[in-house]
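Title: [Solved] Protein HOTHEAD-like isoform X1 3D structure

Original question kept below for reference.
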Amino acid sequence: MMAGYQVHNRQGRYVGAASAFGMILLSIFHMGFYAASASVVPEPTYSFMRNATEAPAVSYYDYIIVGGGTAGCPLAATLSQNYSVLLLERGGSPYGNPNITNLAAFGAAMSDLSLSSPSQRFISEDGVINSRARVLGGASCLNAGFYTRASPEYVRDAGWDGNLVNESYQWGERKVAFEPTVRQWQAAVRDGLMEVGVQPYNGFTYDHIYGTKIGGTIFDEAGNRHTAADLLQYANPTGITVLLYASVHKILFGTRGTSRPVVHGVTFRDSRGIKHRAYVRPGGASEVIVSAGAIGSPQLLMLSGVGPADQLRAHNISVVLDQPLVGQGMSDNPMNAIFVPSPSPVEISLIQVVGITQFGSYIEAASGENFAGGSSARDYGMFSPKIGQLSTVPPKQRTPEVLAKAVEAMSALDAAAFRGGFILEKIMGPLSTGHLELRTRDVDDNPSITFNYFKDPEDLRRCVQGISTIERVIESRSFVNFTYDYFSMQQLLNMTVNSPINLLPKHRNSSTSLEQYCRDSVMTIWHYHGGCQVGKVVDRDYKVLGVDALRVIDGSTFNSSPGTNPQATVMMLGRYMGVQILNERLAREGSD
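Solution (posted by the thread starter after getting help):
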């Protein structure tokens, strides 16, 4: 274990057919819980946050940060202590939006397909439906809230300073991390994991330790979400400007008497389409820092002329730097799950328990009393009748009438059909990688993304072991109160895999071959990363290779996903690099 970064342990009758399970499972993953309500989160009053329509045509700052997400917010808050910072966020504020702030509404934001939605849906070339954040606070406004740190080995391999890593995690945890209350479903998953050998039990801890543990959550006891945007409470209000609905279209390059490109600013448009320019102050060590995420960061580099020259020229983009590795190394940790209908009432819970196995799979779970809830007119989530249920219907037959029938069928289901939960597994890494390519020159358009799920056979092996472990948990004594005697494991697998959970073709042997089950039932857990990786696109100080005054600091730099869930480490990285940049610059200025 590396010095500095240490782990510190803290202590009915079922109604409905298999076809109903498709809609149930989809609503679980992507429509959310809706049934409960939470108290209103007190909204921080940020005097420095405003709509980009109020921005001047031209402005100057010491640091310009593109992307107010999980890394961008802590980074901006830290740098503002000593320098002027402009934080540009393409979306709006998370505050005042109950679909973001309330645990009971988990998934609602991802089912919102409007242009004002805090999420932007995309479908990878693999046929897996996914989402990217479009809101201040980034993916921490959309995810299931699980908070857990990276392993000491991950920290060592990244070359980070262990003491500063600990301090940076703790800095964020004081604002956004909580210990969850474990109730009946999560307790059964915990006990089942230990019963089948995912040992030892490590209690409540943020640390990444083999065995079964209770992790942290960014939802407080009242069910209120706390996001990376809350970390702006640390900001110096006189040193920071946060602009919402500010879509950065291009990084501006120039030269200083040499052929090496140097960044001097960005152009962005406000919600009215008006163009603005923001420049870094001349002289000194001012920089533009891109924190737009694993999709937005490589996309923006390419649109600005840094990327594979052939691809850029194909889109009539002037080449600033031929960098063929931008957009490469894209990975998404595949998620596979088994839905378990329950004869007993279950609590509304998101990820709380995790089994960290020795074979490279992480086992997690969520549950709810009524995953449907609400009005029959509701769009039933990311895999709604519009997206999922109708994916098996030929496009010409996807009429409003067919859609209406699917929604009506969902609404007619007995409430007991929505009682239960799912147990999922996510593999570590992964080893399989893909790539990102531009579709258009419009920064608001999703690029083409291929993740190549299970291309590496080791990823598939880990999935099979993970699903096999889930099967044993479901069949364990600890889980007996949450399963029906008359559902065989093969039936449970069939119910899940035959749901329209992705756009992939199904196979007859999906429930008898776990390898095929993994391939056919693959989903995302939104832990995609890569595209601007360390050692390929950026150096270990996150400076873009081949140009000056430009860094990328976010999950696009990761070569693998940290820990069981990455958000804690992405927040940590923003704070960590903010401190590093401040120390480097203050030392340089002190020696002048």
